[in-house]
Amino acid sequence: MVNVFDTSGILNNFGPIELEGYITNSVISEIRDFEFKTKLNNAISVGILKIEDPTKESIEKVKKIQLESHLKLSNTDIEVIALAFEKKAILFSDDYNILHACRILKMETKKIIR
């Protein structure tokens, strides 16, 4: 099964990263802590994490769900959901709005517990 991580999925899966998966460029931009950034870059360089951005069509589908459901989603949230939707992936997150949008789209999720 394919995995996609939002920022919380990355921050809570570190030490060492055990699951392979995908992140978006916007997730990378949200990681500011030097230690996490270093681990993230290492995971990318050895191929544990891959960077991919979703298509505009998938982003528009998620934005439509956001508007219809009155969910508060950031651009990064929308991109992560869209990428997981495209890949038919498990989305790792602790964000209620992300998890709710995924339920509407009938996507599989794993709730991150801190």
Tell me about this structure.
Helices cover 53% and strands 14% of the residues. The protein has 6 helices and 5 strands; from the N terminus they run βαβααβααβαβ. The model has no long low-confidence stretch (mean pLDDT 91). The protein starts with a strand and ends with a strand. The chain has one domain: 5'-nuclease (Rossmann fold), CATH 3.40.50. The chain is of the alpha/beta class. Helix 4 (56-69) crosses helix 5 (75-87). The strands form 2 sheets. It has a 3-stranded parallel sheet with strand order 1-4-5. A two-stranded parallel ribbon has the order 2-3. It is globular.
List the helices and strands and how they pair.
Blueprint: E1 3-5, H1 7-12, E2 21-23, H2 25-30, H3 34-45, E3 49-51, H4 56-69, H5 75-87, E4 90-93, H6 96-104, E5 109-111
Parallel strand pairs: 1-4, 2-3, 4-5
Helix pairs in contact: 4-5
In short:
The protein has 114 residues and is α/β, with parallel strands linked by helices.
Shape: globular
CATH topology call: Rossmann fold
What is the helix tally? 6
Domain count, please report it. Answer: 1
**Computed Rg:** 13 Å
Instruction: Point out poorly predicted stretches.
Output: none
Number of strands: 5
Sheet having the most strands = 3 strands, parallel
End-to-end Cα distance: 23 Å
> What structural class is derived from the secondary structure elements?
alpha/beta
CATH class: Alpha Beta
Order of helices and strands: EHEHHEHHEHE
Q: In percent, how much strand structure appears in the residues?
A: 5-15%
Oligomer: single chain
Percentage of residues assigned to helices = 40-55%
